[in-house]
Amino acid sequence: MARMVRLMPESKELSIGVYEQLDAACHEYDRRVPQVAAQVAELIRARRPELIVEHIGSTAVPGLAGKGVIDLMVLYSHGHLESAKAVLDQLGFQRQSTRDPFPESRPMRLGALSFDGKTFRLHAHVIAADNPEAAALRRFRDRLRTDAAMRAAYVERKRAILESGITDSVEYAYAKGEFVQAALDSISE
């Protein structure tokens, strides 16, 4: 029987905390991430119901090892970028402070949420709903969910990057980007 866990008592609103920049790593899948992602998505939609929030990235694929950061895609309709950014800022998400941040025309906000004795780091990718990037991120996630060989190859690539000595999170993202792009190129629309 599955155990239901509340993130916070009903009388308190979830609180997005400060993001901690850590070295790149490849962690085993944490079964709690879907609950955290759903709660954060609901928190965003409660303030802006017109936003679409989807769980993407490795933590959206059951059993897949990854950096352990919960990636969310926050989709807005034409002309609503500023209001999407504003709601994330109001909730406590922060702008990137590392080198090579995403541009403010396609931002990523950072945050953290404590749940079940652990702090989960969050990346909120703010993307126009009609941007081809949104469809590509969905295709990659969905392909990973159904293709065991691709999952294994992706984890192998992540571990090889780390074994090569890359621990900087930005360099790590660039290094695994080649795999992601090749996978996207192989997935038909």
Description:
There is one protein chain. The chain starts with about 30 loop residues before the first helix and ends with a helix. It has helices at about 35-45, 80-90, 130-145, 150-165, 170-185; strands at about 50-55, 70-75, 95, 110-115, 120-130. The chain has a five-stranded mixed β-sheet, sandwiched between helices. It has a single domain, classed as Beta Polymerase, domain 2 (2-Layer Sandwich), CATH 3.30.460.10. It is built from five helices and five strands, in the order H-E-E-H-E-E-E-H-H-H. It is α+β, with helices and mostly antiparallel strands and about 190 residues long. Helix 4 (about 150-165) packs antiparallel against helix 5 (about 170-185). The protein is globular and about 40 Å long. The relative contact order is 0.17.
Give descriptors for this structure.
189 residues, alpha+beta, Beta Polymerase, domain 2, 5-stranded mixed β-sheet, 5 helices, 17% strand, globular, disordered N terminus
Concise structural overview:
The chain has 189 residues and is α+β, with helices and mostly antiparallel strands. Helix content is 40%, strand content 17%.
Radius of gyration: 16 Å
* Main β-sheet, spatial strand arrangement: 1-2-5-4-3
- Based on helices, strands and strand pairing, what is the structural class? alpha+beta
Number of strands: 5
Q: What number of domains?
A: 1
Helix content: 25-40%
Shape: globular
Largest sheet: 5 strands, mixed
Estimate what percentage of residues fall within beta strands.
15-25%
Let me know the average pLDDT.
91
CATH H-level homologous superfamily name = Beta Polymerase, domain 2
Give the CATH class. Alpha Beta
Low-pLDDT windows of residues: 1-11
* C-alpha termini separation: 39 Å
Number of helices: 5
At CATH's second level, what is the architecture?
A: 2-Layer Sandwich
The CATH topology is Beta Polymerase, domain 2
SSE pattern: HEEHEEEHHH
